[in-house]
Amino acid sequence: MEENHFRCETCGSPMVRRRVASYDVSGLVGFNHVLVEDFEATVCKRDPSHETMVLDGSLIDFVVAAVAKMIVEHIPSLTQQEVRFLRKFLECTQTKLGEWLGVDRVTVGRWETGETPMPVATAQAIRGRVMAQLSASWPKLMPRAEADRVFKKPEPRPAQFVVQARNLEAAAAC
Ligand SMILES: [Zn+2]
Questions:
Q1: Within 13 Å, how many C-alpha atoms sit on residue 148's CB side?
Q2: What is the dihedral of CA 54, 57, 62, 65, to 10 degrees?
Q3: What is the CA angle 42-45-51, rounded to 5?
Q4: Which of 50, 90, 117, 132 could join 10 in a cystine, given CB atoms 3.0 to 4.6 angstroms apart?
């Protein structure tokens, strides 16, 4: 196993590339309960369970796109967390998204705090825009066959989304 310049923050050991069975990336992608399964990362050589783990940027980009895809394809209406997540996926400020939808920043803020529900037509408009952005970027992130392996896991909790990244390295090499 090839060592690199990273050191484990827990024990100071060198870090190596290893396959990781499962990891909660909720904090990294800004959405609750997102697990990634079976992927390669840079982990502590002495004890891979140490929390210091360096995930590839390409993996995070893929997971963010995968969660956006799951939201727009499988969820009938948008929760406050989903509105916020999709706005960030579209790289919009509240003001910019509001301008596009014909509402002010305060209204967008209310959708994101759950103070007022987003109208269904507005959710559909956002969904359309997210789908357009995904169709442009998805093939670069993952071959079509792999897209189908991203799925919503109904049980057991707390995993809300599970992304299997088994062949991500091969995809990145294309
Ligand atoms: Zn360590």
A1: 2
A2: 120
A3: 60
A4: 50
CA distance 31 to 65: 12
Cα-to-centroid distance, 20 and ligand 1 (Å): 15
Q: Specify the DSSP class assigned to residue 119.
A: P
Ion ligand 1: residues, CB within 5 A, are 8, 10-11, 13, 44, 47, 50
Entry pTM = 0.72
Phi, psi of 162 (to 5 degrees): -125, 125
Distance 116 CA to ligand 1 centre (A): 46
Measured in Å, residue 7 CA sits from the centre of ligand 1 at 8
Give the integer Cα–Cα distance in Å for 75 and 118: 14
In the chain, the domains with their CATH numbers are: 3-172 (1.10.260.40)
